[in-house]
Structure formats: structure tokens, C-alpha cells
Write a structure and sequence with these properties.
Largest sheet: 11 strands, mixed
Radius of gyration: 40 Å
Number of helices: 1
Structural class: mainly beta
């Protein structure tokens, strides 16, 4: 066998010298079935490349004229035979590149693709035999054919590259069942079918045989992860992505039990896709705009807490929870065994005769249940000044050693 490596080396070096890193490159080989003789041609797609011949982008074919060695080349748009041939970036147009050959020995020849790099998986790459009307997927198969020596029909073959599929979608709405995914694909080449799968790639629905060659639209989808699978003969490709949703899910995180009167407790909105919150605590108190509000119940009882969560898309959800409120242990305004609470002008004095716990605390509420003062109880006697507060009744709650004692005092200037 004659060595024609210098010709191939020229192809490789020239092709890499001016192409960008992300170029899409296809190398097609022709080989004689009865020998090891072969030749190859390179087609690449890159930005700012023109299909007409350009010496800085293309390499004209140099024929070896070695007996028994086939020759393979492609044509530029102005019909120049090339060993390396550049075309523009695949976008929304199918690219068709004419392929020529010369053989001096009649026999079976095989066409293969030796390099398919940086092509989008949803681009189909075909070798068309324009004489026999056959198409071979070069990603998955080779093509073997009888060629005659001296055949003048040297543009019998074409390389066809479809442009990549593109996707558009709408989010799933308030009922989480109306999301859509639309697939736009090259209509000049027909996929066998396009199928969408869930997060585990279990089939959800199939567009079927796209005989009408229209865009594939998948509807009635919930929020989640999906994979769109493309099938063309033995070749398959996939694209994974996440479809978001606008639906609202709501639940209430309630305070730990027990809940006692006059004790400040916090409720939590456990929600999805919500940024607006409206609370009704079942005893006349409503709070809006806060996800995790706090309040104190003034009377014991069984209350139903209602939360409405919503968002700017008009979606909403309501959740309810029940809480039991018991009466806090109370003391009067006179001295008891362990604690004494009394008022003087706008001050509250608390005397503790028992040992203080590390978590001892004093809270003062107005009759609306709003906290107006809170402080750790660290000394046996604690004086609270409420200057600046309005005259009226206040509730003084003292927590110590797991016990909660509350009394009502009247303050006036």
C-alpha cells in the first residue's frame, strides 16, 4: 500500500488551525472493501464561515492518483472540490453538502463517519445516496455500496445535517396540571417519534410518528423534571430540563404544646410558591403579610387557625390547624409564697422568693395580646418601667422552673 499520510496530515492541521474550539466537525471516510485503502474528507460548521471557497477556511482536494486508492471530497457552494470544507454554524437551516468520489477499481466501498464532535445530539447526520434514494444515519451506521470505476456522477452523494431542536414551555398553573413543552425540530428530516419521560425517564406521553412534520407539543404537565427523547432508527438523543410551576401548597407549623394564655407563641407558614400570607387565629385576631407571626391567646379554648397563601399569579391554597389553649397559673396582686407582683404609677415590681431558673423570664402584654416588654429574670427583685405606654390594664407573665404565673395590673400616671 502506498502511504498518503501527508495528505491526511494536511487536512488535520489546516482544519484545526482556523476553527474554534466549539466547532462541529464531521470526518467521512471511503474505504475499499477488498483492500485497506481509504481516503477521507472533513466538513466543519463554525461561526462566520462562508460556504464558498476560501483559502483561509477550506483546503482544495489534492488527488494522489495511487492505483486502487479511492478519493473522497466535498464541494463548496461554488463547486470547488475540497478535502476540508467549512460551512456556517447550524442554526435554523438544514445544511446539505455535496460529496464526490473517484475510484479506479469497480467494487464494494464503505462510507463511515470517523469523527462526529460538538454536534447537538438532536441534529441528525445523514449520508444520502441520491441515485438509489437511500439515507444512512452516520452517527449509528455505515453505508456500503457498489461503485464503478470511471463513474462521472461524482456528486452522487450528499451529507445532510439537520439543525438542532429548540424548546419553549409554559409553567404549570394553579392546578399544577397545565404545563406545556413545545419542541421545534428540523422538518426536512423526520424523527421516528419524540417521547417525554418523567424524572425517572418513565414515559409520560409520545408525539408519535410525526408524519405531519409539525412541532411536537406536550401538554397537561405538572411541575417536575422531564426528559425529551428523540428516536431515529437505531439512533437516540435526549434533552433533560426542569418545568417549574405556579401552584401553591400550604400547611401550618403550630407551636409546641401546651399553649397557655398570655404566652407569646409563633406559627409558621410551610408553603410552596407563595409570597402572600393571611392568618386568622380563630379568636378575632387576623394578621397579613407575615409568614411566621407571633401572638398570645388571652382566653383558654379550642381554636381553629386558618392560613391562606397566595402569589402574584393568582394561585392560592388554604390550610387549617387546631390548637388547645389552657389557662396559665395566675397569682393576685398580693404577696404569695414564692412570688409577688404589684404596680406603682407606670412601673411593675416583681419579687421572687424562690430560686431562679436559668430560663426565668418576665413578659408584659397589653390586653390585645401584644408584647410590650420582655426580659430574663436574673435578680430576686425586678422593676419594669412602662413610661410612655398608655394607662390601663397589663398582664405580667413570669416563667420560672417550668411554671408560668400571670397576673393583671393597672398602671396610671
Amino acid at each position: 500500500m502506498k502511504n498518503f499520510t501527508p495528505t491526511l496530515l494536511l487536512i488535520i492541521l489546516t482544519g484545526n488551525a482556523f476553527a474554534t474550539v466549539d466547532k462541529s466537525t464531521l470526518r467521512v471516510r471511503i474505504s475499499a472493501a477488498s483492500t485497506n485503502y481509504l481516503d477521507e474528507t472533513v466538513v466543519f460548521f463554525d461561526k462566520d464561515i462562508f460556504p464558498a471557497y476560501n483559502s483561509s477556511e477550506d483546503v482544495a482536494k489534492v488527488f494522489n492518483n495511487v492505483p486502487g486508492v479511492p478519493a473522497l471530497f466535498t464541494y463548496t457552494s461554488d463547486s470547488i472540490k475540497c478535502s476540508t470544507n467549512g460551512f456556517g454554524t447550524l442554526a435554523t437551516t438544514t445544511e446539505i453538502v455535496k460529496v464526490g468520489y473517484r475510484v479506479d477499481v469497480t467494487g464494494n466501498y464503505k462510507f463511515t463517519a470517523t469523527s462526529v464532535t460538538n454536534f447537538d445530539p438532536t441534529s441528525i447526520i445523514l449520508l444520502a445516496d441520491n441515485q438509489l434514494g437511500t439515507y444512512t444515519d452516520l452517527r449509528a451506521n455505515f453505508y456500503q455500496v457498489q461503485l464503478d470505476s470511471g463513474d462521472l456522477n461524482s456528486d452522487r452523494f450528499s451529507i445532510i445535517v439537520s439543525y438542532p431542536a429548540s424548546f419553549s414551555y409554559t409553567n404549570s398553573g394553579c392546578n399544577n396540571n397545565d404545563g406545556t413543552i413545545k419542541v421545534n425540530f428540523d422538518k426536512s428530516i423526520q424523527w421516528d417519534f419524540i417521547q417525554i419521560g418523567d424524572a425517572n425517564n418513565n414515559p409520560v406521553t409520545t408525539a408519535g410518528s410525526l408524519v405531519t412534520k409539525v412541532d411536537a407539543t406536550f401538554s397537561a404537565l405538572a411541575e417536575g423534571d422531564y426528559t425529551v427523547n428523540f428516536i431515529y432508527g437505531s439512533y437516540s438523543a435526549s434533552r433533560s430540563f426542569h418545568l417549574t410551576g405556579n401552584h401553591v401548597v400550604a400547611s401550618i407549623g403550630t407551636p409546641g404544646q401546651p399553649i397557655v394564655t398570655f404566652e407569646q407563641v409563633t406559627f409558621n407558614a410551610n408553603s410552596t410558591h407563595a409570597n402572600q400570607f393571611a392568618w386568622d387565629f380563630g379568636e378575632g385576631t387576623t394578621i397579613s403579610g407575615i409568614a411566621n407571626p407571633s401572638l398570645a391567646y388571652l382566653q383558654s379554648g379550642n381554636y381553629t387557625v386558618t392560613l391562606k397563601c397566595s402569589n402574584e399569579f393568582g394561585c392560592s391554597a388554604t390550610a387549617q390547624a387546631t390548637v388547645d389553649v389552657t389557662v396559665a397559673t395566675a397569682v393576685q396582686n398580693q404577696t404569695e409564697k414564692n412570688i409577688a407582683v404589684y404596680a406603682h404609677d407606670m412601673s411593675v415590681i416583681v419579687n421572687m422568693n424562690d430560686m431562679l431558673n436559668d430560663n426565668a423570664e418576665i413578659r408584659v402584654y397589653n390586653l390585645l395580646g401584644e408584647t410590650v416588654y420582655t426580659h430574663p429574670f436574673t435578680t430576686q427583685k425586678h422593676t419594669i418601667s412602662l413610661d410612655g405606654k398608655p394607662n390601663g390594664y397589663y398582664l405580667v407573665s413570669v416563667k420560672n422552673a417550668g411554671q408560668l404565673n400571670t397576673t393583671r395590673v393597672f398602671l396610671s400616671k
